[in-house]
Amino acid sequence: MTTALLEVSGLACRRGGRRVFDGVSFALANGDLLTLTGRNGSGKTTLLRALALLVTPRAGTILWRGEEVREEREAWRARLAWLGHQDGLKGDLTVLENIAVAERLHGREADSERIGAALAAFDLASLRQRPVRTLSAGQRRRAALARVAASQASLWLLDEPLNALDAPAQKALHEVLSRHRATGGLVVAATHAPLEHARVLELGV
User: For strand 33-37 and strand 186-190, is the pairing parallel, antiparallel, or unpaired?
Assistant: First the structure.
């Protein structure tokens, strides 16, 4: 029997007094990829933000290895890598500096080998010393994904990760997700486009 690492039970969120979703439940084990689907406004981003403790659920539990994550918020956030609609990069810092700073902010060592592999995976090695403000939208998205890939986070929370990516970059993302999962990593992604070998949770039904 597969043991769940992340268990979400009866999660409910409100926004501006309006119900976004109620009773969301799922469990993820080593290597699982869950995609959140549904129409705009169905709560995909809100659910990701609730998992990241960026919004407070009205009801429900979020358990990691059987323990409520809200009781150890800093430890939980150290296990996460977050990619939102915005790339979350500092324009005046280089690609390399953005990744290194993100790791330090999460209390993790900036591992040069991991960072180098992440940059190579998204074809960014030649741009590593470029300030992010000089990059195209697609290059910035690849840099944001490289930041996630370079992390040592167990759980990746990705909001529309395919945005602004061309076909080679989309292929790179699928390969990076596969490698993360092969080492036991978990992924929850909100997306309108399918991701390979994913379970699907449709919101708003």
Answer: parallel
